[in-house]
Design goal:
Elements lengths: L6 E7 L2 E10 L6 E4 L5 E6 L4 H10 L1 H19 L7 E4 L2 E10 L5 E6 L2 E7 L4 H35 L5 E5 L6 E3 L4 E5 L7 H14 L7 H10 L3 H11 L6
Parallel strand pairs: 2-4, 6-8, 9-11
Antiparallel strand pairs: 1-2, 3-4, 5-6, 7-8, 10-11
Helix pairs in contact: 2-6, 3-4, 4-5, 4-6
């Protein structure tokens, strides 16, 4: 039976300090890392494993740990979100506060982004239980519109550099991807990517445009992407880290 964590340590990952509890056990042959819902990190290691070896393992998994914590935080925020005044939502990497106003003139709900806030007007004929749903739908529609508008200019900029011309561009709901490119030249993007900082938005665009020339992730694809966006690796890692938080 595993012993309860009794030892603690930590490693530095950029500006983030990752503290973890060490659980020694006779039942394991390898080191395992768990990020719990409360954001705590537990490392299960065979008895006798050196602390330096454990620290090395945690350091190597730091990006994954940060990503899991972001995912946990996003799930907790979404579970408690009621789409009421005071809550915040991301747009281009910045937090915008939501302000909901109930009025008899709204038809039945409208959303705009103004002076650092999302302003939502909801028709007073809607019951309180209905408001959260209509505000969420209106916000998603707003994000889709802004994503489409930004894609037009961003694609035009990078397509010339990469030397491709998309046949069509769609903004849609995507569960596990930020974008995709088909063999016939059609691009599809997850509307949530407009919640990310501009450099990450551009990274996804450039990535998919490169796929119009090189469908697979082969050497030629990565060479072309490196020419179009020399810092694509750091952008990709950043997107992996914050990706779970890009949702309403």
């Amino acid at each position: 039976m595993s012993q309860k964590p009794t030892d603690r340590d930590g490693v530095q990952y950029g500006t983030t300090r990752i503290e973890y509890a060490i659980e020694r056990t006779n039942r394991r042959k390898t080191i395992g890392i768990t990020v719990r819902p409360d954001q705590s990190v537990v490392v299960a290691a065979p008895k006798g494993t050196r602390r330096t070896r454990i620290a090395e393992k945690v350091r190597g998994k730091s990006a994954w740990i940060v990503q899991q914590r972001e995912r946990n935080s996003a799930c907790q925020r979404n579970a408690s979100r009621q789409f009421q005044s005071g809550e915040t939502l991301l747009y281009l990497g910045k937090q915008y506060q939501l302000k909901v106003t109930v009025t008899p003139t709204a038809d039945p709900v409208s959303v705009l982004c103004y002076q650092g806030k999302f302003l939502a007007q909801v028709n007073s004929s809607l019951g309180k239980s209905e408001r959260a749903g209509v505000v969420r739908k209106a916000l998603e529609a707003w994000y889709r519109e802004r994503c489409t508008a930004r894609l037009d200019s961003c694609i035009e900029k990078h397509a010339k550099q990469i030397g491709v011309t998309p046949v069509s561009v769609q903004v849609r709901e995507m569960k596990s991807r930020w974008g995709s490119a088909s063999a016939d030249g059609r691009l599809r993007f997850n509307w949530r990517i407009v919640m990310a900082p501009k450099p990450l938005f551009e990274y996804v665009v450039a990535h998919e445009l490169c796929h119009l020339r090189h469908p697979s992730h082969g050497r030629d694809f990565w060479r072309l992407l490196a020419i179009a966006m020399p810092d694509h690796v750091s952008r990709c890692l950043r997107l992996e880290a914050i990706g779970p938080s890009l949702t309403i």
